[in-house]
Specification:
Blueprint: H1 3-14, H2 28-33, H3 40-51, H4 59-66, H5 73-77, H6 84-95, H7 102-119, H8 122-137, H9 140-147, H10 153-160, E1 169-172, E2 176-179, E3 186-187, E4 195-200, H11 204-208, H12 210-222, E5 225-228, H13 238-242, H14 246-261, E6 267-270, H15 273-281, E7 290-293, H16 294-300, E8 315-318, H17 322-328, H18 332-338, E9 345-348, H19 362-365, H20 367-378, E10 388-390, H21 394-407, E11 412-414, H22 416-423
Parallel strand pairs: 4-5, 4-6, 6-7, 8-9, 8-10, 10-11
Antiparallel strand pairs: 1-2, 3-5
Bound molecules: iron/sulfur cluster (2 copies).
One iron/sulfur cluster binds next to helix 3.
Length: 428
């Protein structure tokens, strides 16, 4: 989109803000930094100042924009419906044209490289799976990090702490008895078919969260749903959009639209709410196919009475990802899904209205703020009381898992559907 069009759009939207300040107490960066420039109202005023040329787009301005998590807590409470999420994405597209500091530029180069070579071509991630697995088992990632100065310390630490990667299940019984590098295109319903759905794999998730994808197929099949997994699907484009690369994000949306639109399915199911929101807002849906978070889909599905689910008489902490809470507005389905497990008591995690700090690539770009946000949550976990913590977004899960590990907490984090599949008998 030409700069002038973006500027006009930003002016029109920022003018919707009446500066009431109702969003301020909900903004994680304002709560941490107590600075107007790091609040939604302040950022909106700064954006308006820049696009109307009253203030320069300098390093300080970019810093305030970069500190925004895009959690959209402000948008969910705004009485004037200011579309803050779209606003900050548009602003980032303008900033992307500007020269950045050498540090930021270096970070961006590494991220760009990863995005371009792997996230845009997730099949390459699948090809790397065995290599990654081998490296994890033989300290290879540590050596790679030592040799390659491209990795920021944060990214390097994150990669070395990832849990051991799992493989796609090709055939299921109550375990994956045949695994491979990629999922099959179709997993038929067990016994009577109640419906057909598509499963969105994501990019990072297909490497780091095969467990959730396997669990989703297992539960959906047993509820009577045939699962289609078109191999031509790709990354959702959220990272590109949030970094201002709109045309690349649109290219990815087109590719996903082509992958799913020819299938005879009622919904595209997402297991990561971050990807789900991007697919929903970018127009993947049509009259026939909707995008649904798996928690929502399963809770509204029929056939539960035919399933055997082993009891788990424990408190289960539930983390509410910002995308599920502030955009899908469907965080309640995580609790309802867990409540299908006899004896399980789903309880909200402390500060669920505040972002955990993961926020896409935010935890790499703003490690200090991200860690402070995560710390606020983790200090309230007692691992003697809580064995399981569930969350419906892989980005949050990986970041929180890292924090649990660093703090020596034994609480295990997983997707709600993974916990459910385990109680249904799947050995993962
Ligand atoms: S709540 Fe909405 S209108 Fe009020 S200050 Fe925040 S963004 Fe502006
Ligand atoms: S998106 Fe989140 S961090 Fe950014 S201004 Fe809104 S509430 Fe604050």
């Amino acid at each position: 989109m030409p700069d002038q069009l973006i500027e006009n759009r930003i002016i029109a939207e920022t003018n919707q803000c009446v500066a009431c300040g109702l969003c301020l107490p909900h903004c994680p960066t304002y709560r941490l930094l107590q600075s107007e420039a790091d609040s939604p109202r302040g950022r909106i005023a700064l954006m308006n100042g820049v696009v109307t040329k009253r203030i320069p787009m300098n390093t300080r301005f970019i810093e305030h924009m970069d500190r925004c998590l895009t959690c959209r807590a402000c948008e969910s409470v705004c009485p004037n419906q200011v579309a803050y999420g779209d606003l900050i994405d548009q602003m980032r597209a303008l900033i992307a044209q500007q020269e950045k500091s050498p540090d930021t530029a270096r970070q961006s180069q590494v991220l760009n490289l990863l995005v371009r070579f792997f996230l845009h071509r997730p099949k390459r991630l699948e090809l790397l799976r065995r290599l990654f697995y081998f490296a994890q088992r033989h300290n290879g990632l540590y050596l790679l990090g030592r040799l390659n100065r491209l990795f920021t310390p944060r990214l390097f630490k994150f990669m070395t702490q990832l849990p051991l990667v799992k493989f796609p299940c090709i055939e299921f019984s109550n375990e994956c008895y045949r695994t491979g590098n990629a999922w099959r295109e179709i997993y038929p319903a067990i016994e009577q078919e109640r419906g057909r759905v598509g499963l969105f794999l994501g990019c990072v998730a297909r490497l780091t969260d095969a467990e959730t994808l396997n669990a989703s197929i297992y539960v959906l099949n047993r509820l009577g749903y045939t699962v289609h997994i078109p191999s031509t699907q790709t990354c959702c484009g959220a990272i590109d959009r949030h970094h201002g690369a709109f045309s690349m994000a649109e290219t990815l949306v087109q590719q996903n639209r082509m992958a799913f639109s020819t299938l005879n399915i009622e919904a595209v199911i997402t297991t990561a709410s971050g990807c789900g929101v991007q697919l929903l807002e970018s127009g993947l849906t049509n009259d026939r196919i909707k995008v649904m978070d798996i928690n929502h889909f399963l809770v509204t599905a029929t056939g539960w009475e035919d399933l055997e689910i082993a009891p788990l008489p424990q408190k289960i902490l539930v983390h509410e990802p910002c995308t599920l809470r502030n955009v899908f507005r469907s965080q309640q389905y995580q609790y309802q899904l867990i409540a299908n497990i006899p004896g399980a008591q789903p309880l909200p995690m402390a500060d669920n209205d505040q972002c955990c700090g993961a926020a896409g690539s935010y935890f790499i770009e703003q490690p200090e703020l991200a860690d402070r946000l995560l710390d606020n949550k983790l200090t309230q976990i007692d691992d003697k009381e809580t064995t399981y913590l569930v969350t419906a977004n892989i980005g949050c899960a990986m970041f929180i898992a890292n924090g649990l590990l660093e703090k020596g907490l034994n609480t295990k984090i997983m997707h709600p559907v993974t916990l459910l599949a385990r109680q249904m008998g799947l050995q993962l």
